[in-house]
Structure formats: structure tokens, C-alpha cells
Sequence to fold (132 residues):
Amino acid sequence: MKITSIAPQLMFEGAAEEAMHLYTSTFADSEIESLVRYAAGEQGAEGTVKQASFRLGGQRIRCIDSPIAHEFTFTPAISLFVELDTMVSVDDAFVRLSEGGAVLMELDAYPFSQRFGWLADRFGVSWQLSLA
Fold:
């Protein structure tokens, strides 16, 4: 069995496009690659994200807006770990992503990183940001 690709997929409830725009505007060398919306009469709410993909740096991430209401959301047990090249980059990304979210570990120096912070953004996606 040969894997042809592997990428994390994030499932939102109506906020996938807003999240993609936040993420791709936060990190340099990032872009929305594809975006397909639900049309009238399809299972999901018209205009929400049926399927999409975006790149953060070189990492492809997929996302959807779930057409089905569910009782669960994201958990910090899985997070996107991003290494950035400068302290300013770490700080800027932390501020942008934590706005309206929750800080899980304050932005600070730790034994494993000179600059690190862990947060859940306003959509519930968990991010660990570290100086490379």
C-alpha cells in the first residue's frame, strides 16, 4: 500500500472559510489552494465550504464545514505545531491567533524553546508556536 498524500483535515461548522483566511493571512508563504462551496439543494448550507485546501508554508491542510451538527469540536490533544524563524514572528502569530481564543501556555521562554506559546484560536483549533 502506497500513500499518495496525507494532510490534516479540520472540520468546522460554518467557519471554515473565515478560518482559512485568518491562517493564510497570519503566515507568510501561505495560500488557499482550492475552495468548493455547497450549492443550493446540497446537504450542507448553501455557500459554506464543501471542501477546501490551503497551505501554510509547505504544509497542505484540508478543511470542510460539516453539513451535520455534532456535539464535538477540536481538542488540544491534537495541535498544529509551527516553528517560526524570529521571536517577532512567533509573537505576531500568537497575538493574531489567540484573539478571541484561549491561551493554553503563555508566550514565554521554556527549557525546550527560547520562545513558545500554545493557544486555541477562536475556532477551537490548537496551535503550538515555537521559535525554530
Observations:
- The mean pLDDT is 97.
- The CA atoms of residues 41 and 71 lie 24 Å apart.
